[in-house]
Specification:
Layout: H1 2-25, E1 59-64, E2 73-78, H2 82-87, E3 90-92, E4 103-109, E5 129-133, E6 137-149, E7 171-179, E8 187-200, E9 210-212, E10 218-220
Parallel strand pairs: 2-3, 4-7
Antiparallel strand pairs: 1-2, 1-5, 3-4, 5-6, 6-8, 7-8, 9-10
Length: about 220
């Protein structure tokens, strides 16, 4: 019973505490404390890539998934070792592309325990936004599909997971986690998304993360 409490609850408390500390220590503007009275304009033209490189354990992004609940946000750090995944939320596969790049921005996360950042991937519906925020940019991806694969099926994090032998043409995000959720994981649940648009953090917040009160004021949700 104590092990279950530790695995299901206390590891999540530790992970959330570490993620909050990491966000507070980063020199990033706070969307809720900045110009959150505006919806950031969707940009056209060349998509900026940020960051271009990162060290193990370094904060590179934050991910917001409204389908997982209002206020749901998880950090993404560089690396997918146990140290990164257990305390920092989500980990970026170093061999994959960065946010905004043509190719595959692939991340991993626990589905059970440690705050279960990807515990609800089975609830995603086609078209759901998966929003990635870096220091200066928002990248709004739309969920497209999922598949369940063996751990050896590493094509899912290739630059072009749809055809690992071909050059990438899309800007994708891939979320990888364990399957099944509550027993010994024998497979991996893979969720895919494609970039819809990007915006500047300095311009406000994406419409997918904005709410309007009775007076018409826009607020960061």
């Amino acid at each position: 019973a104590l092990y279950v409490v530790w695995q299901m609850w206390w590891t999540g408390v530790q992970s959330e505490h570490t993620q909050v500390e990491t966000r507070q220590s980063a020199s990033w503007s706070d969307p809720a404390g900045g110009d959150s009275s505006k919806v950031a304009k969707a940009q056209s033209g060349d998509v900026p890539v940020q960051p271009t490189s990162a060290s193990d354990g370094e904060l590179i992004a934050q991910v917001y998934v409204p389908r997982f609940g209002q206020g749901w946000v998880r950090n993404v750090v560089e690396g997918t070792d146990e140290a990164e995944l257990s305390l920092h939320g989500l980990g970026h596969y170093p061999s994959t592309q960065m946010p905004g790049s043509v190719g595959n921005f692939a991340v991993a996360g626990h589905r059970n325990g440690y705050g279960q950042p990807l515990g609800d991937v089975d609830k995603l519906q086609e078209g759901d936004p998966i929003i990635v925020r870096t220091k200066d940019y928002w990248y709004v991806y739309h969920y497209t599909r999922y598949e369940i694969v063996l751990p050896t099926d590493v094509h899912v994090i290739a630059p072009n997971p749809e055809d690992s032998t071909a050059n990438p043409t899309k800007r994708m995000i891939t979320l990888t986690t364990c399957e099944p959720k509550y027993s010994t994981p024998t497979h991996r649940w893979i969720s895919y998304g494609e970039l819809a648009y990007w915006a500047k953090v300095s311009d406000g917040v994406p419409k997918e993360l904005a709410t309007t009160d009775s007076s018409g004021a826009v607020m960061f949700s």
